[in-house]
Amino acid sequence: MQATFVAEQLNTLGVTFSLGIAIGLCYDALNVLLIFIRLSKTAQFVIDLLFCLVMTALVFMVLLVNSWGVVRAYTFLAMGAGGLCYYLFCHRWCQSLMVRVVKFIIAAARFTAKPFIWGLQRLRRLLRGVFALFCALGQFGRRCWQKIKLKFHSKKQE
Question: Into how many domains does the chain fold?
Answer without folding.
Answer: 1
